[in-house]
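As a warm-up, study this chain.
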Amino acid sequence: MTPETPVPVVPATTSFEEFVPKLLASYQKFGGLNNSDALNLPSKRAVGEICEDLLQLLFPGFHDNDVVHNGKLADLTSRRLTDVMTRLEDQVRKSVRIGRPNTPTGRTPPIIQKFCKALHIVREVLRTDIEAAYNNDPSSRSHEEIILSYPFIEAIAIQRLAHRLYRAGAPMIPRMMTEWAHSRTGIDIHPGASIGAHFFIDHGTGVVIGETCNIGNHCKIFHGVTLGSRSFLKDEAGHVIKGLKRHPNLCDNVTIYPNSTILGGDTVIGANSTIGANVFLMHSIPPDSLVIYEEKQLSIKSKVAAKHPAELNWSI
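Now compare it with the structure written out below.
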């Protein structure tokens, strides 16, 4: 018998203290440190947990392990709302104090109040998104299936919430929320994007919707679609100018098929238009347009004919 290969003995390391000074020097030189003597920055983990709990508020029972009874819904909602708003307020306060940690700004309470007032409105708009998914996807069997299993619903729910915070003036937190949804769903929608009712993203993977997009009602897009920026204007010092309109607008009833790219802040897709798959577009189109690439000749050949050429050769 072949003797067993001896397992190498690794010397026990008693201390890692020798590496600490280099890490500390790195913190000082390159930044990226999430604490100071005064106040931490917002926490990615905390914001992710807040997103989870906001989904419970929007869809009671759909994100819960336990059954939610109607008789206990009022008390449950009250406790949940108080808890999640307290934690969200703490994260927003940290975000508005970035750069001046010891100076109260007074901005946080009005932001949270505006956000709370919008929660029932967000639910109403999400109902139209669920209806759009049900009406546009022949594979859907129920509204419940859509809420439970469609990544698009999770992505648009978080984006619509984050958009309210964005409009209320909360820095950083809205983007952290939509990036949390992005990491879970593969759908990247900036919180600044304004999106109308009855919106539907079919499949969703790889969709990118930029900050200054304005999307009308009853719009539908497929996976791989990008609504992006054409270029970045720079000032005399060579720095990118921020705050400009960079992304396209979609009017009502626009459909965009997979892997199409539409760029530019001046680009407007007219109402009732359809953009076919794999289109690259950087200019406006009028209402009721159909934009496609004319199909090149497609050849279909038999694998059998490759061995016996006389048997079959199709071409269309």
